[in-house]
Amino acid sequence: MTEVRTRFSPSPTGSLHLGGTRTALFNWLFARHHSGVFILRIEDTDRERSEERYVKEIEESMNWLGLNWDEGPYFQSERLPIYRKYIQRLLDQGLAYYCDCDPADLEVRRKEALARGEKPKYDGRCRDRGLKPGSHTAVRFKTSQTGATHWHDRGKGPICFDNQELDDLVIQRADGIPTYNFAVVVDDITMGVTHVIRGEDHIPNTPRQILIYQALGSPLPEFAHMTVTLAKDGGKLSKRRGAIPILAYRDRGILPQALVNYMVRLGWGHGDQEIFSREELIKYFSLEHMSKSPGVYDEEKLLWLNSHYLKETPLPELARLLVPFLERLGIAAQNLDYVARVAGTLNTRSKTLVEMAEMARFYFQAPASYEEKGAKKFLTQEIAPTLEDIKKRLEAMGEFSEAAINQLFQDLSTETGRKMVQLAQPVRLALTGTTVSPGLFDVISILGKEEVLKRLNRALDFIYKEQ
RNA sequence: GUCCCCAUCGUCUAGCCUGGUCCAGGACACCGGCCUUUCACGCCGGCAACACCGGUUCAAAUCCGGUUGGGGACGCCA
User: Fold this and answer.
1) This prediction's pTM
2) Structural domain count of chain A
């Protein structure tokens, strides 16, 4: 059995989005599952639109998700001589020819055909003219006009195209740069790619590429076309339709494990299992279980997975992850132990690190104001004596543990006959500024005696000043 | 328009290849309830689907054909 070799070949003409990343993930998983090789290849033959910074972004995105590659990155722009050699071979064998048709004319003819309700195809007018290379000549591949091209797709099953549907595609532009359909084939041949796993938007390219493989006398790789991802309103997920750069997920406080888990479950399944560790993914992944119909991007499910992984992440690590998000809010958190305790009270109630940081704010900054409705209800003249009492009791406490504080409030409740809620809410408001927060006794314990007393005093001042 | 692909709860999916165990299972979302110092978490329960029409068969979500619907592709972009 020969070694499995897959590749991910993005073009650096923009940020990496969910769709492309999912393709990378499936290729990576397939390679890892078979202990094969995963190659990164940058398809930068479009000189106009390719940019160095996007190469960096692609690499950074993949690194963030842990999709490590074994070979590459290869750059098509550095492989021009190789393509030229293969083009020449086809030319010499009469399997390709020069064409000097004006691109603008072709465009007009294409529009006309479309208007007539026909499939826009190149009519092959230069096919037998025996043109010599010139400054405005492209090279076209002589596509067979008879028979059919078919293959067994590992994702879709048998697919067949009538060759009459195809036309003589340009394989080398007038500027000497090969086009996508040709460069991919040459690359996949020379890099020994055994499995081509890509989006189903490439299905129409496949018969053309197969014909080129055959013209070059090379054996075919396996093809597996995976579904595209649709936006909520239907239609391919795109920049216009809600797709965001993959790194934006990181900025939004999404964990890489959550994104990976989400992407893999979109269009693939393994029984009833929803949560997969990286090892399980590698162990279970197979092309056969890919779904055949397109999936709709559902952010709710991503967020659910994210909150799941947020809960799973060990506190010290969660603290490390949270710090940059705190800093973004202008909170300098040097004490990682403190942040870990804070995170421990927030990990079950936030969906993202961004949310968690926002909720953590009061642990680092005293409330600047009190939520209006809550203040009206709980920070009243009537409660003031009780708050004074709480203050005194807390002040007298030794060990400031959650359990001890809990006991203190229980006692107070029995002694005063006040319900816990009537005790907790005013204090919560005083400490956090809102009526919603993590468990109050945890909050008190974490903030510490000094800070708690300070905030209680401020709340009391607020009450006395208000009435 | 032409070609290609696809079709199970609102969404992601299991089952389909190897018909009966499926009056279709899980998850997200949603709706109840429990827990409770608030909000969450957690737990329990509920809602909800085999697109349609024919055929094959003792029997079809599962096989075949058609219809409808959705998606993709039709560049000297990738």
Assistant:
1) 0.94
2) 4
- Quick one: which of A72, A11, A74, A84 has its CA closest to A44? A11
> Helices (H) and strands (E) in chain A — how many of each?
19, 12
Residue A431 placed within a domain: yes
The overall longest dimension of chain A from CA atoms, in Å, is: 104
Our measurement of CA A115 to C1' B25, in angstroms, reads 49
Residues near A123 by Cβ (< 8 Å), separated by ≥ 6? A109, A167
Per-residue pLDDT of A155-168, as tens digits, reads 999 999 999 999 99
Domain end: A175, A201, A226, which one?
A226
**Nucleic strand B under 7 Å from the C-beta of A349:** yes
| Cβ A131 to strand B below 7 Å | no
**Nucleotides of chain B touched by protein CB (<7 A):** 1-8, 10-15, 25-29, 36-42, 70-78
Domain range for A51: 5-75+229-296
pLDDT in tens, A214-268: 999 999 999 999 999 999 887 888 888 888 999 999 999 999 999 999 999 999 9
Q: How far is the CA of A352 from the C1' of B22 (A)?
A: 38
Q: Domain ends where: A175, A192, A226?
A: A226
